[in-house]
Amino acid sequence: MHPSALFFTAIAIASAPAAAQAPAVVEITKFAYAPREITVAPGTTVRWTNHDETPHTVTDKVGELASPGLDTGDLYEHAFANEGDYPYTCAVHPFMTGVVHVRRP
Amino acid sequence: MTPIAPTDPTMPPRGDEVDHARRSVVGCLAAWSGAAIVWTVAGGVPRAALAGDRAAPADRALRFVQISDTHIGFHKDANPDVVGSLRRATAEINALPQAPAFVVHTGDVSHLSKAEEFGQARELLAELRVDRVHTVPGEHDALADGVGGYLKAFDLDGAGRSWYSFDQGGVHFIGLDNVRTFSKGRLAAIGDEQLAWLRQDLAGVAHSMPIVVLAHIPLWTVWEPWGWGTADSAAALALLRPYGSVTVLNGHVHQVLQKVEGHVALHTAMSLAYPLPTPGQAGVGEPGPVTVPAGELGKRLGTREVHLVRGRHALALVDMPLER
């Protein structure tokens, strides 16, 4: 998928009316976070789900995102209180990268 | 000293290597168990052979066995019985005509770094009838609490850290942790603290002493897009380059790959859990477990062996994955 397409998908999720209640969703499939970049409002919970047979994590360098090893079907959720950019990687596969942008609507 | 070079698989085997009946038996066992690799160090030159290969040398040589990537806790289709696979390998190792001095496990002992996985792995490895099992952590062993959980089960020397060295049989062994430091980008790294330790450790080792390095992720870049390499391996290899015989034993890639750089020979080992794809394999975009029908699994694992000979200069700088 073209990167800009990912971006617009993320915007669509974040700006949906139910975004404040329902978690924003990031799927982990084929060693990639989809969408790789997601933009959400402060207070939004983001939910990652691993669909691979290989375990992955959601891990950042500052300790805000620190999932355990996610086996197939496991979820990790994190609520983002503050605006900012939250880049993360998979601790098992550091070439997997994603970013959560937290912005006021 | 002459560099060690891998055997060219396209060359016909020497007469003393031909024993088709025995090979097929070894192949059958390997099909079930993955494979254990027996290393012997004779005259400073490590040699590898599949467990059960009685052609391996030699009197009074230091013998040890390498296993890797047991992934205790894995339960998917690619291998629903990783415990059974480890037990088959253990039976082979325990049945070796000459007992190995010890076993090395080059990481990914567990699949998800769970305490119960480490505990079960520790119990299973205790079934090996050897004095010691030396382990290094894989990235699957560092998922929860860095290597905290791993060290609770596998801190063999009680130093509270995941790297170490020891001397045995005239060989200097070094175990490294190259699965936790990601500060340098896409690849994991050894890290400056450990490199400083390595420099200090080697300062007391004569250049004539053979060195064996254990580390989970290959200490050369096998395939960067899949993270199959160590960001600062060049710094470690530079410290090792003055030594006459350096053998690096890695895991992580679940297949046998070899590279020789001057006096440094690097080898990855098969897994005891499941195959991974070949780097760059057509149609495979990511390094996930490969599920094959049982018959094919045997064909893939059973026909492979590691066998090094001395002094093939023409092959000395060739990366050589063995065909499956």
UniProtKB/TrEMBL annotation, chain A:
Residues 1-20 form the signal peptide. It holds the Pfam family Cupredoxin_1. Residues 5-100 form the EfeO-type cupredoxin-like domain. Coiled coil: none annotated. InterPro entries: Amicyanin, Cupredoxin, EfeO_Cupredoxin, ET_Amicyanin. Keywords: Signal. PANTHER family: BLL1555 PROTEIN (PTHR36507:SF1). This is Plastocyanin. It comes from Dokdonella fugitiva. The lineage of its organism: Bacteria, Pseudomonadati, Pseudomonadota, Gammaproteobacteria, Lysobacterales.
TrEMBL record, chain B:
InterPro entries: Calcineurin-like_PHP (IPR004843), Metallo-depent_PP-like (IPR029052), STPP_CPPED1 (IPR051918). Residues 62-255 form the Calcineurin-like phosphoesterase domain. Signal peptide: none annotated. GO terms for molecular function: hydrolase activity. PANTHER family: BLL3016 PROTEIN, METALLOPHOSPHOESTERASE, CALCINEURIN SUPERFAMILY. This is 3',5'-cyclic AMP phosphodiesterase CpdA. It comes from Dokdonella fugitiva.
